[in-house]
Amino acid sequence: MEKLILETNKINKYxxxxxxxxxxxxxxxxxxxxxxxxxxxxxxxxxxxxxxxLSTMDTEYEGDLILDGVSMQGKSDEELSRVRNxxxxxxxxxHYLLPEFSxxxxxxxxxxxxxxxxxxxxESNAIDRLKxxxxxxxxxxxxxxxxxxxxxxVAIARALINNPLIIMGDEPTGNLDHKNSDxxxxxxxxxxxxxxQSLLIVTHDHDFAxxxxxxxxxxxxxxxxx
Length: 226
Ligand SMILES: Nc1ncnc2c1ncn2[C@@H]1O[C@H](COP(=O)(O)OP(=O)(O)O)[C@@H](O)[C@H]1O
Ligand SMILES: [Mg+2]
What we know:
- There is one protein chain.
- The chain has helices spanning 47-54, 77-87, 103-114, 119-132, 148-160, 178-195, 206-210; strands spanning 4-15, 21-32, 36-40, 62-67, 70-71, 88-92, 166-170, 198-202, 214-219, 222-225.
- It is an alpha/beta fold.
- The chain has a single domain (4-225), classed as Rossmann fold, CATH 3.40.50.300.
- The strands form two sheets. It has a six-stranded mixed sheet. It has a four-stranded antiparallel sheet with strand order 2-1-4-5, with helices on one face.
- Strand 9 (214-219) and strand 10 form a beta hairpin.
- Bound molecules: adenosine-5'-diphosphate and magnesium ion.
């Protein structure tokens, strides 16, 4: 039996501005190690809000989130930040690389922040990641000087630097052409297969979603099918 990496129990989320609006309704699901899951649903149905909660960045919600067997209820900001750095990697539609820093420095950053390994080890891990994604030749380039598809691969390398249990993506291929979307899909697929990492990827791309292990469909704040 593969272990559960992530579980949610009846998550409710409200925004109060300008009026109270419930944007997540009784969201319960779980993910196993090695699972590649996509989340689909119309714009505004709550996908990004859900990812913020699952990634521990938003703590204003009802219900329980359990990551790697541990409930996130009552955790301090420091504890949550540690969980985030250690167990979760993120890839967003807009890469958020620091443009003035080199590709290598960008990839190393979360590793230096976690401070679990020496800077030398982090650097050598970062180079390994770049190699496995086929972009080690870009290491010394500034992040502002590479293409969109390359940036997204750098963002993936950065998400992987701390060897997370789960990689979460909010429309990571939303800004890419078909060829580069395919490259990103193949990288994700390979991660699940080879390193047993779990992937939870929000996507608008039904072709991408149909190739994942499982599709979670959301409608108006609820999971309607998974
Ligand atoms: N900070 C906020 N304040 C108030 N309402 C918000 C806020 N962020 C998102 N919403 C609302 O919550 C709903 C879900 O948004 P979101 O999670 O971004 O949807 P999706 O990612 O599926 O497009 C939308 O109705 C949106 O307008
Ligand atoms: Mg969104």
